[in-house]
Structure to design on (190 residues):
């Protein structure tokens, strides 16, 4: 009995560690992608657009992935962001700040928008490491795998990135910035 062509193709894909991306499972990663996009863009409006554009790009054709769906989607998000930046490099970058973007805060307090803008202004290697660890809650091993860097390098980038962000916030007049990293959530608790 002869096996069909698709069965041979599936066996070959499995032997290479590849599997098809299941579009029905993508919605579960929307929140993590949105947080990462907001940190990259510095604006909730741009973050929504970036996540939507990433999904359009990913769903444009069938995809084969190796590893986790979230890792694949984060790389796709970063690539989409990079493509947008390259395309917009010839135009001046303007971000319209609206009064309704963030709620009013107590004097001296740091709101989420200010922190995300500071993260977005960090150099890419530091920004990506801080986003992976602090915003997405990935372990250092997971972040290293997704960022394509050794775990020690990711730890160093997170440390330096946090320090850069804290200095930036302090220069902006936010003197109550904590230098201690946030408490880590267990991986099971998203």
């Amino acid at each position: 009995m002869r096996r069909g062509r698709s069965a041979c193709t599936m066996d070959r894909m499995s032997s290479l560690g590849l599997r098809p991306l299941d579009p029905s499972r993508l919605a579960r990663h929307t929140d993590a992608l949105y947080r990462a996009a907001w940190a990259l863009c510095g604006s909730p409006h741009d973050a929504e657009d970036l996540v939507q554009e990433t999904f359009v790009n990913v769903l444009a054709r069938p995809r084969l992935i190796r590893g986790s769906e979230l890792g694949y989607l984060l790389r796709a998000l970063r690539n989409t962001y990079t493509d947008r930046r390259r395309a917009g490099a010839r135009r001046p970058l303007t971000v319209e700040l609206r009064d309704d973007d963030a709620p009013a805060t107590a004097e001296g307090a740091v709101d989420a928008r200010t922190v995300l803008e500071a993260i977005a202004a960090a150099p890419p290697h530091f920004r990506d490491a801080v986003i992976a660890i602090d915003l997405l809650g990935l372990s250092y091993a997971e972040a290293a795998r997704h960022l394509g860097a050794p775990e020690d390098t990711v730890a160093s980038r997170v440390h330096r990135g946090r320090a850069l962000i804290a200095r930036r916030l302090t220069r902006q007049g936010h003197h109550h910035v904590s230098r201690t990293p946030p408490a880590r959530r267990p991986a099971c608790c998203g």
